[in-house]
């Protein structure tokens, strides 16, 4: 059984469905996939496509509503306040996977819901991790992630060391379970912690030297049409240029629409237009 974790809410049900479907379509054995979907409540009409993955491909789908318990809230409270507000706190699930997955889970793939898997995921899931805790791809704009405005260095990171994107991570869960992330950042000054980029900074800081660097094709970030020639294994639409916006210029845009299926794609696109209009009205 291959364990895969996604986290999203109603705002990302469409891309979440597309990511799960892409994993099944390109898997050599979709019945061996077990999805753990951690969410903060899904409307019935948004939950239905996610659950249909089981019937359509034989994969196991386990949905966990985080609002039904305080398993996440209590743990987040132990972390310092971070000034950034763009990301949903649900991203912190990645730090507690060892506690939130079945006890027999040895290895897990965490994957963001804004991805498109194009090649058999078994090639990644079965790789030799060489004793490392996480296998991941370098962050392309790591200099900016590390240093921020005017590239002023932070004490927690050095631009001479690797910094990894947390959107696609193969995790050795047995080793991961031994990590105490709260203790790992406890010595940092408050002014440094306030600048942290949520769990991605925490992972890179606490697990320094414990990452295995993957080929960039396993997490091709912000892919444009020119990147199609590289036959990326996983596309990661992590910028504001998303494949559901008609003005976006991204790799495999037409294929992505059919991946989500026309019916779901156009319903999701209409929802995003409404959200965009509401945001503009608030700004006005």
Describe the model.
The chain is of the alpha/beta class and 284 residues long. It has a single domain, classed as Spore Coat Polysaccharide Biosynthesis Protein SpsA, Chain A. Helix content is 35%, strand content 15%. It has twelve helices and ten strands. The protein has a seven-stranded mixed β-sheet. Strands 5-10-9 form a three-stranded mixed β-sheet. Helix 2 (44-57) links the parallel strand 2 (33-39) and strand 3 (60-65). Helix 1 packs parallel to helix 2 and helix 11 crosses helix 12. Pfam families: Glyco_transf_8. It comes from Devosia sediminis. Keywords: Glycosyltransferase, Metal-binding, Transferase. InterPro entries: Glyco_trans_8, Glycosyltrans_8_dom-fam, Nucleotide-diphossugar_trans. This is Glycosyltransferase family 8 protein.
List keywords for this structure.
single chain; 284 residues; alpha/beta; Spore Coat Polysaccharide Biosynthesis Protein SpsA, Chain A; seven-stranded mixed sheet; three-stranded mixed sheet; 12 helices; globular; Glycosyltransferase family 8 protein; metal ion binding
């Amino acid at each position: 059984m291959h364990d895969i974790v996604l986290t999203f809410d109603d705002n990302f049900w469409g891309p979440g469905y597309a990511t799960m479907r892409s994993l099944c379509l390109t898997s050599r054995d979709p019945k061996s996939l077990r999805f753990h979907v951690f969410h903060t409540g899904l409307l019935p009409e948004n939950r239905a496509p996610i659950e249909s993955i089981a019937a359509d491909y034989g994969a196991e789908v386990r949905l966990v509503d985080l609002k039904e318990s305080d398993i996440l809230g209590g743990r987040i409270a132990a972390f310092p306040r971070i000034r950034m507000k763009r990301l949903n706190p649900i991203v912190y699930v990645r730090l507690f996977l060892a506690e939130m997955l079945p006890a027999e889970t040895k290895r897990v793939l965490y994957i963001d819901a804004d991805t498109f898997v194009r090649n058999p995921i078994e090639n990644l899931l079965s790789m030799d991790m060489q004793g490392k805790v996480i296998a991941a791809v370098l962050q392309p704009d790591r200099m900016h992630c590390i240093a921020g405005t005017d590239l002023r260095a932070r004490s927690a990171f050095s631009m001479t060391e690797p910094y990894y994107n947390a959107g696609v991570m193969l995790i050795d869960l047995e080793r991961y379970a031994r990590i105490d992330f709260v203790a790992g950042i406890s010595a940092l000054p408050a002014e440094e912690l306030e600048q942290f980029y949520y769990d991605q900074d925490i992972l890179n800081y606490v697990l320094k030297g414990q990452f295995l660097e993957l080929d960039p094709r396993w997490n091709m970030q912000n892919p444009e049409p020119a990147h199609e020639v590289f036959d990326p294994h996983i596309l990661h639409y992590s910028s504001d240029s998303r494949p559901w916006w008609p003005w976006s210029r991204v790799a495999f845009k037409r294929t992505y629409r059919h991946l989500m299926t026309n019916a779901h794609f156009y319903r999701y696109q209409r929802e995003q237009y409404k959200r965009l209009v509401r945001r503009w009205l608030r700004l006005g």
